[in-house]
TrEMBL record:
Domain ATPase: 3-209
GO molecular function, one term: ATP binding
Name by which UniProt lists this protein: ATPase
Domain of life: Bacteria
Taxonomic classification: Bacteria, Pseudomonadati, Bacteroidota, Cytophagia, Cytophagales
């Protein structure tokens, strides 16, 4: 699959690179696994003098030997003696950067937490001492989000506040998914687009896998997911166990409950029979895997709160794969596919709401955007978009099947919202597959 999108990120990296010719720059690039961070950085390397180093799980000595050879080959330099410590390697690189401008990318940088934690303070000391004379453009990349956040944003850590720039790589937006699907399958249907959005969430690796396998309809995607040796079956575990550490069973249980419609803290705690407040807080703030949802127009500190999984694929995985992992282990893939088919209408309906919310966010037409409900989950409104500047509000009902949209019922459910926004122009909309 060809390289898509990321123009804004490439432009930002270009500006950082240009600044590094005058003064050293330190950039942090983070994002969930499979999102395309490495592909982005390698694309950026195409038109510059750049060195890419991957921090594998091996000894510091072996890493340094590999790194030295790479630098020697790319920069055409020699070194006298042997380097076996990263401290000495980085000191050498900083010295080289006094007379020439180049980019150094350290991928999976968080692995030094397992290899040698003193590396972080050693980099800090060398950076602080040498950056004024350096023209180095150094980029630290990592996919264990919580570790990278701790390394660079924890005030107790040595590299805190040292970064001059930060890029958070997000999934492909809706319009990019449309472009990719159009290139791969020009005759795709709106139902295909919804399945593509629901299963991948715009995560580059999943998009690439489906495109490569020509799995671009719901049925072909299910065949790709639920098959022997499928990448997708263990993906949730592979993506998150390193993030969660020894508490992963508790986190997995919470995420599974949220994915299966137990979205409030009392609902989760009633099933788990224990307090989950600290776990929910970490899932939201440290791991960025869930987010709080409050009814739009409610107080920011209001106690009416639901949680949702941010990532579409993980929402699918925890709902259909993790919950039924015994079927995965015995290879009963037909059962799993039948299960998805049975519940797909409900799942895809929620994903369609998310699709239109993403589309409305991208339009930059609203200063407030969200959903609305009242006590007991009554009077639910799928999308409420408020433009305070123009004094107008959009109230939308989302259904996969346009024939099931009932705007009369939407008007009745909207009474409280309309009363709060009594001087606003109100527009009622029905959104379905047809509007994708």
């Amino acid at each position: 699959m060809r390289f898509y999108n990321r123009e804004k990120e490439l432009e930002q990296l270009k500006k950082i690179r240009e600044r590094s010719a005058q003064s050293a720059q330190m950039t942090v690039v983070i994002g969930r696994r499979r999102i395309g961070k490495t592909s982005l950085l390698k694309k950026d390397m195409e038109d510059q003098l750049a060195i890419y180093l991957f921090i594998a799980k091996k000894s510091e000595t072996l890493l340094c030997q590999e790194f030295v050879e790479t630098v020697k080959n790319i920069l055409s330099v020699e070194i006298f003696g042997e380097i076996t410590r990263f401290k000495d390697f980085f000191a050498w690189v900083m010295d080289l950067s006094k007379t020439r401008n180049f980019t150094l990318i350290l991928d999976e940088f968080q692995e030094f937490k397992l290899i040698n934690t003193s590396v972080f303070s050693e980099i800090q000391n060398l950076w602080d001492a040498g950056k004024s004379e350096s023209k180095l453009n150094i980029i630290f990349c990592g996919s264990v989000y919580s570790m990278m956040k701790d390394i660079f944003e924890n005030s107790k850590e040595p590299l805190f506040s040292r970064a001059t720039s930060k890029l958070v790589i997000k999934p492909f937006e809706v319009e990019v998914l449309k472009e990719i699907l159009s290139d791969a399958s020009p005759d795709y249907t709106k139902a295909d687009l919804l399945a593509f959005f629901s299963m991948t969430g715009g995560v580059a690796k999943y998009v690439e896998n489906f495109v490569s396998a020509k799995a671009l309809t719901l049925e072909s995607m299910l065949e790709e997911i639920f098959s022997k040796n499928s990448l997708f079956l263990d993906e949730g575990k592979n993506t998150l166990i390193e993030e969660f550490g020894r508490d992963y069973t508790t986190y997995f249980s919470i995420l599974s409950l949220i994915a299966n419609s137990k979205t409030s803290r009392p609902e989760i705690e009633s099933v788990m029979e224990t307090s989950v407040g600290p776990f929910l807080e970490k899932l939201e703030n440290d791991f960025s895997l869930i987010k709080k949802i409050r009814p739009i127009l409610s107080m920011p500190t209001g106690r009416t709160v639901k949680y949702e999984i941010v990532d579409n694929f993980l929402c699918f995985w925890f709902r259909f794969v993790f919950k039924n992992f015994s079927a995965v282990q015995i290879g009963n893939f037909e059962y799993l596919k039948s299960l998805v088919r049975r519940d797909y209408a409900s799942f895809s309906g929620k994903m369609l709401e998310r699709y239109f919310l993403d589309q409305y966010k991208a339009s930059e037409d609203f200063n407030e955007l969200g959903t609305y409900w009242e006590r007991g989950n009554t009077n639910e409104i799928d999308i409420v978009g408020v433009n305070s500047l123009e004094k107008r509000v959009v109230l939308a009902e989302v259904k996969v099947n346009r024939n099931k949209i009932d705007l009369t019922a939407l008007v009745k459910k909207s009474t409280t919202v309309v009363e709060k926004l009594f001087d606003y122009e109100i527009e009622y909309r029905g959104l379905s597959l047809d509007e994708m």
